[in-house]
Hints:
The complex is a heterodimer. By secondary structure, chain A is mainly beta. In chain A, about 0% of the residues lie in helices and about 50% in strands.
Amino acid sequence: ETGVxxxxxxxxxxxxxxxxxxxxxxxxxxxxxxYQQALGQGPQFIFQYYREEENGRGNFPPRFSGxxxxxxxxxxxxxxxxxxxxxxYLCASTLxxxxxxxxxxxxxxxxxxxxxx
Amino acid sequence: AQSVTQLGSHxxxxxxxxxxxxxxxxxxxxxxxxxxxxxPNQGLQLLLKYTSAATLVKxxxxxxxxxxxxxxxxxxxxxxxHMSDAAEYFCAVSAxxxxxxxxxxGTTLTVKP
Lengths: 117, 113
């Protein structure tokens, strides 16, 4: 049990729709990262937020966006869904003191499985 | 740029046998290295991490890994496999000044009775 929760657990959308995924981090964890894990692959870094500001982004298009809130919750928004967006979406929180910190332990939530039809 | 290669997408061992999961990395800066385990329908759980202290790192559930710079490897081992070790294992690398991790494609460990 990592103390990181995600909602919903599963979600089915159709191509072109928009989706919002939510994550609740451990209290005091001011850094949250989002990852996309396609079937049979490792997680791929989408972006990271530190103190409500984007603090790094992976190779994902702008239709992937996020928000982080002062209460340690965060959102991942995906617009104009495509079939290839079907994946498990993971959030991970860290007790980062600077927003960087490659050695910081990331605490992962259980993920949201998104299916795009 | 950083990358991770996990050799062997599937590894099968008998209960009580040695577990060896291979990970090689590429990094332009001194890396931090991690091993995670993922059980079905769950998130990732950290097994152990290397952060430039001791090269032999001990983790949870009897797992350990050795950082070998000359071989750019960080293989995961466990002396005696248990049925409960059956899961997906991921090796990951991160840079000292970047919080993101780059993951390998994973190795599925099967433990036979």
